[in-house]
Design a protein that fits this description.
The protein is α+β, with helices and mostly antiparallel strands. Helices cover 15% and strands 31% of the residues. It has one domain: Glucose Permease (Domain IIA) (Distorted Sandwich). The protein is built from 4 helices and 12 strands.
């Protein structure tokens, strides 16, 4: 049952033609999947595990924001180059420079024990350490905080999505279907059974 859900959840409008190692992304996920990558809980993406020395400068919903903006307590660019961590175990479905105001992006699909899937989305990264097609563990460093090539002061734009097929999007919208409040999601899912 879990594998059937796994295949369906990753068959999105954005990813079916995307290939990793010359194979569709869905095949690569199934071929490389092992139970040790089931997400058994979630932590914050900065100041692991509890966002220590960071604050949420623009929470989900404020000004139609679709994520949280995590900044270091020092403000400005004091957090430029600080580590970004995977919030939970999962599969890296995208890790590259998206350009424009997004800069470097990492997208990770998380598979929970009862078959639910979620996506975590990390933007404006200075460096990307995760590779597309890689499985990561909870708390594994996947990149560093950036400023989208100087467009913004350094911060992490971070989203959690219940719909893993959503496109990159624009970061702001009154239409929030498929998007979750990241802080609320993490607090409710510190452990998952």
């Amino acid at each position: 049952m879990g594998f059937l859900i796994l295949i369906i959840a990753c068959n999105s409008a954005e990813s079916p033609k995307k290939v990793v190692d010359s194979k569709p992304i869905e095949e690569k996920i199934v071929e490389t999947f092992t139970p040790k990558y089931i997400a058994n809980g979630f932590d914050f993406p900065v100041g692991k595990p509890d966002a220590k020395q960071y604050y949420n400068a623009q929470p989900f919903g404020e000004n139609d924001h679709l994520g949280d903006d995590w900044n270091g307590l020092g403000g400005g660019n004091t957090d430029l180059g600080d580590p970004i961590y995977a919030i939970g175990a999962g599969y890296v479905k995208f890790a590259e420079d998206y350009g424009g105001g997004w800069g470097n992006i990492v997208r990770i699909v998380h598979f929970l024990p009862k078959g639910e899937t979620y996506e975590s989305f990390y933007a404006h990264c200075d460096t990307i350490l995760a590779k597309e097609g890689q499985w990561v563990k909870r708390g594994e460093q996947i990149g560093t905080i950036g400023n989208a090539s100087g467009i913004y002061y350094a911060h992490l734009h971070f989203e959690v999505r219940a719909d893993t097929s959503l496109p990159v999007g624009g970061g702001y919208s009154t239409y929030t279907e498929g998007y979750l409040d990241p802080t609320e999601f993490i607090r409710k899912h510190r452990t998952v059974e």
